Amino acid sequence: MKRMLGKSAANERTDVVGDRVALEPGRYNLCPEMKFFATPPVHGSLANQVVHPADLCFKLSENVSLEEGAMCEPLSVGVHACRRAEVGPETNVLVMGAGPIGLVTMLAARAFGVPRIVIVDVDDNRLTVAKQLVAYGIVKVTTSLKVSTLSWIDQSFIMTM
Fold first, then answer.
1. Which Gene3D superfamilies does UniProt cross-reference here (predicted)?
2. Chain centre distance of CA 24
């Protein structure tokens, strides 16, 4: 049964019940009690349905797939980082970690016009994906980085204007 947008007598938001939505986790960086889905003791990130505060749910347009919707939050992290760092064609970027957040941050930096993006990780598979996307350079972190690798990173961030 459809109801008007807003709150019912039971104080239950009904405007997104059954809708496909992207979830905003809130301002978790300010909350010492924050718990993420799939991080104990919170379970359910692989469930078909979850309960989440309605004012932190954003309805997906019909032309947005669930996969694209799932990337809204990681992409927003990358775009926010690029905006805060004021990156652009005159800057170079070092991304620490080639997981989902690192990869979309790398893509966001490229969209902002960054010419040289070096990404660092411990996992060869993640670095391969990063290189296939747009990374200018990749660095596999080990317990003993060679001086030549460190020198290459240093030289990668020197741009001549």
1. Medium-chain alcohol dehydrogenases, catalytic domain (3.90.180.10), NAD(P)-binding Rossmann-like Domain (3.40.50.720)
2. 12
Phi, psi of 141 (to 5 degrees): -80, 130
Backbone angles phi, psi at 20, to 5 degrees: -80, 125
Domain limits of the chain?
Answer: 1-70, 72-156
- CATH number attached to the domain at 72-156: 3.40.50.720
What pLDDT digit, counting tens, does each position of 3-24 carry? 333 333 333 444 656 777 877 6
Strands (E), the chain: 21-23, 57-59, 92-96, 116-121, 137-140
- Residue-level pLDDT at 119: 93
CA distance 122 to 136: 17
Spatial distance between the Cα atoms of 147 and 102, rounded to a whole number of angstroms: 25
The burial class, CB within 10 Å (0-12 / 13-18 / 19+), for 53 is exposed
